[in-house]
Write a structure and sequence with these properties.
CATH class of the largest domain in chain A: Alpha Beta
CATH superfamily of the largest domain in chain A: Periplasmic binding protein-like II
Distance between the termini of chain A: 49 Å
Strand order of the largest sheet of chain A: 4-3-5-10-6
Number of domains of chain A: 3
Oligomer: homodimer
Helix content of chain A: 25-40%
CATH architecture of the largest domain in chain A: 3-Layer(aba) Sandwich
Order of helices and strands of chain A: HHHEEHEHEHEEEHHEEEH
Shape of chain A: flat
Number of strands of chain A: 10
Number of helices of chain A: 9
DNA sequence: CGCTGTGATACCCGGCAGGTATCGTCAAAG
DNA sequence: CTTTGACGATACCTGCCGGGTATCACAGCG
């Protein structure tokens, strides 16, 4: 199978509309229809149900959408890593580390400082991403390593090392009655009538609910300060609290683990050095 | 990048010879040369050093060989799983389980029996492989799950669950002096002058050494019975010993773990059932 | 009935993948 | 030093196929 056909298929499977998919691909609709039909013939499997008024994925189509995305990611990763290895920037002398913006800031500081001191250290490019999925960045080669947080990120398919664990806090408007408490439980914050939990997009769409829609951390901080919402965050979020915020420990929230993760079987020497530095950081506390 | 170009590249990178690679690909040499050059131009990276008398991989070429194989595996897996999902055999009602021939036989028996009793169980096709790499089978979709053995197999990149651990034994000719011992150490068996350790192929080639070259378990068993070699095996290998063999426990050999492994993020319901059955097997002992 | 939105079909064209023939170059043989 | 063989690169041709435009078939809707 050809990556071209696979990209076409993914586009159609995502749009569920040949016309829009063709537009997205920058081509006309007829050749796209033909390419999909040819792909189905070559695989010997029907991928779409062409009903009147639109298309739907078959079971085989769902499998191909899932597996195909992984294959395309792997192909993109191969291209990116090859270009980086042969580019003008000396071979593998540059690592891209994906971190969630404002997450584990202090740990990141220490990691960068410790790694910079390693003789022969590669240059580290920090890829700050808001709510973008770090898993995808690792899979398609845009990043070489990522600081990820369980239980929010899945570490499946990557190698990883746990660096720290921490408790969680509720971040409230300082003037809210609950802010006076010594500690809270998940049940306490889950159902505060005047402070609905903020919603942030997962996979591009916002889950339904009463809370405000959040796009970045600053927005969230401001909404909390305004007394419109509350947030549950790892302990290290204290680093960016405002004076109008109150941080109250959650006694029964799950521990948040910070891990450094990288593509399984990675063979980059520079990456190995970064990981070693990270794990040594952990041992020292 | 196109899978076609990638397959061409991998062929040349493996053969390090345009003519042989072209032959393997069933095409003439000139278009292959051109395709590689075009790939290099498209990536903006030099992949081969064309010296006089042959070609060699550049650093970028090594990266692409490694990453490209993974990408091709992922593509093949997408094709295979899609075809299986849409084939005549009802969707995902069939699972392929890769096991090392004669390894963990008793565990496999129990697993198959237990899973067959699960209501709605899928059909299990057992893919017995000699010394073929199970990692590859999982990666390119020829298998859905595998029973793998640490520390021999790497579980990197897969999800896995440990099922059992066991010690290791030395298998000797029954009439050999060492066969009378109660127990042995790795040092004892590592350097027996008249019983050199057998060599089996890793990645298609035999490592150098004095021992006989082995292709399958029967051959090994016979060579031991003939007093030509000895072998170190997990405890469960006792299942296939001959009367002319002696099994002596190794006190200081690393524990061998048997794991069931599957592609990370697998979403097959049938596979989930198999894994659940396997882990329950473990809990019951 | 006509209009609209959608995917499928018909047909054409240009580019590119693949073939053959040949060259350039280097190394080993004599 | 010359010859010869091995190997990759180049030149050039050809047929296929990917992509375009125009149009059809059909279903829902007013």
């Amino acid at each position: 199978m050809d990556t071209r056909e696979l990209r076409y298929f993914v586009a159609v499977a995502e749009e569920l509309h040949f016309g829009r998919a063709a537009e997205r691909l920058g081509m006309a609709q007829p050749p796209l229809s033909r390419a999909i039909k040819q792909l189905e013939r070559r695989l010997g499997v029907s991928l779409f149900e062409r009903n009147r008024r639109g298309v739907a994925l078959t079971g085989a189509g769902e499998v191909l959408l899932y597996e195909g995305r992984a294959a395309l990611d792997a192909t993109d990763a191969a291209v990116r890593r090859t270009q980086r290895a042969g580019g003008v920037d000396a071979p593998s002398s540059r690592l891209v580390l994906a971190v969630k913006a404002a997450g584990s800031h202090e740990l990141l500081q220490r990691l960068l400082a410790a790694y910079a001191a390693v003789p022969g250290a590669a240059e580290i490019e920090v890829l700050l991403c808001g709510f973008c999925d770090q898993e995808g960045l690792l899979r398609d080669g845009r990043a070489d390593a990522a600081l990820m947080h369980t239980p929010f990120n899945s570490l499946a398919g990557f190698d990883s090392e746990e660096l720290t664990t921490e408790g969680q806090i509720a971040i409230l408007p300082a003037r809210h009655p609950l802010a006076a408490r010594e500690s809270l439980t998940v049940a306490d914050v889950g159902d505060v009538p005047d402070l609905p939990l903020a919603r942030w997009p997962s996979y591009g769409v916002y889950p339904p609910g009463p809370g405000p829609e959040i796009r970045d951390q600053t927005q969230l901080a401001q909404l909390i300060a305004l007394g419109r919402t509350l947030a549950v965050m790892p302990d290290s979020a204290r680093a960016w609290l405002w004076s109008e915020h109150a941080a109250i420990p959650l006694t029964d929230a799950p521990q948040v683990g910070t891990h450094i993760a990288w593509p399984a079987h990675s063979r980059s020497l520079a990456l190995a050095g970064l990981i070693r530095t990270a794990t040594e950081l952990r041992r020292r506390g």
